[in-house]
Amino acid sequence: MTIPTLYIGNKNYSSWSMRPWLVLRKAQLPFEETLIPLYQEGTKEKLLALSPAGTVPVLQVQGEMIPDSLAICEWAAKCVPNLWPKDPVNRERARALCKQMQDDFGVLRNTAHMNLRRRTTTAMPQDCLDEAARLVAIFEDLLGAHEGPFLFDDWSIADAFATPYASRFNTYGMACDLKVDTYFSELLADEDYLDWEMAAMNEPWTIDMVDTV
Ligand SMILES: N[C@@H](CCC(=O)N[C@@H](CS)C(=O)NCC(=O)O)C(=O)O
Known about the structure:
- By secondary structure, this protein is α+β, with helices and mostly antiparallel strands.
- It folds into two domains: about 5-80, 3-Layer(aba) Sandwich (Glutaredoxin); about 90-195, Glutathione S-transferase Yfyf (Class Pi), Chain A, domain 2 (Up-down Bundle).
- It has ten helices and four strands; from the N terminus they run βαβαββαααααααα.
- The protein has helices spanning about 15-25, 45-50, 70-80, 90-105, 105-110, 125-145, 155-170, 180-190, 190-200, 210; strands at about 5-10, 30-35, 60, 65.
- Strands 2-1-3-4 form a four-stranded mixed beta sheet, with helices on one face.
- Strand 1, helix 1 and strand 2 (about 30-35) form a beta-alpha-beta unit.
- Helix 1 runs parallel beside helix 3 and helix 7 crosses helix 8.
- The relative contact order is 0.16.
- The structure holds glutathione.
- Glutathione binds near residues 68 and 69.
């Protein structure tokens, strides 16, 4: 079997790419990675050559392309056990939460862009803070209902999906309660996350519209 290739965007900015990369790492599945710098001349053509979605991440497996971060994580979960919670109800709740983390919180995602190198004290607009508070309340409930330290006890794909949000709270200095703050610190101290972050720190590319918010 040929080793799968994960096509990703800039590690500093691409929250969608980070999630399946963390999951493949945690799954200890061998993979190669190819980084396509985003928002440069020719980027869109390169992305469209990978899949009709025209976005990263994309996983190439046996010559076939799997676009979409959650679909890639589902593929990994079929290859190895325990990437989703064991309990069937929690498993489906974790899936639903991942879907929500993809589709919901648009103001938060589009105002407080993931930007691992950045630290700013610029006040975020109220609608962004409101969405951040709504996300924190969801995490707080789950952390209170489980033994922790993760959303559904053991690390799962849901925690990979939460990690880019944790980094946003750091970058923009957004407040959250102690339990969620401790959880975010756990995610950002993860050794695979730190490998990703280190690579992000050394990337040469910048995206002005995201660096000046
Ligand atoms: N729902 C998709 C969204 C992927 C996505 O929007 N990726 C961004 C990178 S962070 C992208 O490729 N943007 C480039 C573009 O839209 O031209 C997923 O979960 O994979």
